[in-house]
Specification:
Blueprint: H1 2-6, H2 13-40, H3 48-54, H4 57-71
């Protein structure tokens, strides 16, 4: 938070986009916790294909977050 304040990142567009992606990743983590509980109870409501697809979401979010931090496009 101190670094964010020192470089005035909260005034820049890339920081807002990064923060939004971090919030999305946190929300995704919450969905994953629900799915783990369902699987622990042997309640398989979704297909293998669904789980393989959503497995890529955190990777895409992480790559976008890193690109925003390094490149600072806007």
């Amino acid at each position: 938070l101190w670094v964010m304040w020192e470089i005035s990142a909260w005034q820049q567009g890339w920081f807002h986009a990064k923060l939004m992606l971090v919030v999305l990743m946190s929300a995704f983590h919450g969905f994953c916790a629900v799915w783990v509980k369902e699987l622990a109870r042997d309640e398989r409501k979704r297909s293998d294909r669904f789980y393989r697809f959503v497995n890529e979401i955190p990777t895409v979010l992480m790559v976008l977050i890193v690109i925003l931090v390094v490149v600072k496009p806007f």
